[in-house]
Write a structure and sequence with these properties.
313 residues, mainly alpha, ZSWIM4-8_C, metal-binding
């Protein structure tokens, strides 16, 4: 294990498992020994995802028929290892560390703090969203919200990335904020506006936010008793303006290189844009001006502008 620690070897994973099996056969002292000297034998990822996870598994405890003090000693060594690995390699070990520290309040808090500290420098939006979802699953919605907010600051969704894998995470983060209440929703919307420039994604978020009042998710019998939020007031106004801008920018981007076979699709896109425009108080006027503009700027595309006239006047 020591000889191959810094050189990649295709058999390492298998050997790590085999070493843990041997240590289990030898007994609890051997397991404590490899947990305490993990850094000379394993990478942080191996130590958390294979070694500590196997040692802490139900099978190992049954196999060794450990008494309470022995189980506690192993658990304590595994938690120490988990926190050391999370400090060393938060990107790959933070989630494993949280899982391994779940049953110990202080260790769990420490692991969470390591994630928060690493969030600004060493974590990607995917990793942060994964940990945020885990926090919600564990029953910590406010921590999930904090991590989701940090994840949003690492994300940049361009106007044409309407199938980006992070879209589900963004929708989840907005639904979580919405379920927590108006303040949380007001805090996440500026982050969404800064990170997401895709019109269809923004309009989807806007539609979901206007369907129910914030803070009412999961409260039975309170479906419609809450006051729905107006798109003309904060915080939804900012989201509405950003969505309208995104539709305008995307329209111009699409029109620069449009071919006749995409005309039908483009008209449908404009119909979607109109639905969003109409959420604004003077939306019908804004949309009419927008269409007039298009007819002026792109009058060379006669066939397309004829289709625009047919549909939107």
């Amino acid at each position: 294990m020591r000889m191959t620690l810094s050189t990649l070897n295709w058999r390492r994973r298998e050997m790590v498992r085999w070493l843990v099996t041997c240590a289990t056969e030898v007994g609890v002292r051997a397991l404590v020994s490899i947990l305490q000297s993990w850094y000379s034998l394993f990478t942080p990822t191996e130590a958390t995802s294979i070694v500590a996870a196997t040692v802490m598994s139900h099978n190992t405890i049954l196999r060794l028929s450990l008494d309470y003090p022995q189980r506690e000693e192993l658990a304590s060594c595994a938690r120490t290892l988990a926190l050391q690995c999370a400090m060393k390699d938060p990107q790959n070990c933070a989630l494993s560390a949280l899982t391994l520290c779940e049953k110990d309040h202080i260790a769990f808090e420490t692991a969470y703090q390591i994630v928060i500290d690493a969030a600004s420098t060493g974590m990607t939006h995917t990793q942060l969203f994964t940990i945020a979802r885990y926090m919600e699953h564990r029953g910590y919605p406010l921590r999930a919200f904090k991590l989701a907010s940090l994840a949003m600051t690492h994300l940049n969704l361009a106007y044409n990335q309407d199938t980006h894998p992070a879209i589900n995470d963004v929708l989840w983060a907005c639904a979580l904020s919405h379920s927590l209440g108006k303040n949380e929703l007001a805090a996440i919307i500026p982050l969404v506006v800064k990170s997401v420039h895709c019109a269809t994604v923004l309009s989807d978020i806007l539609r979901r936010c206007t369907m129910t009042a914030p803070g009412l998710a999961g409260i039975p019998g309170r479906r419609n008793s809450g006051k729905l939020m107006s798109t003309d007031k904060a915080p939804l106004r900012q989201l509405l303006d950003a969505t309208i801008s995104a539709y305008i920018n995307t329209t111009h981007s699409r029109l620069t290189h449009i071919s006749p076979r995409h005309y039908g699709e483009f008209i449908e896109f404009l119909s979607k844009a109109r639905e969003t425009f109409l959420l604004a108080q003077d939306g019908h006027i804004q949309f009419a001006q927008f269409i007039d503009n298009l007819k002026q700027i792109y009058k060379g595309k006669k066939k397309l502008m004829l289709l625009v006239r047919e549909r939107f006047g």
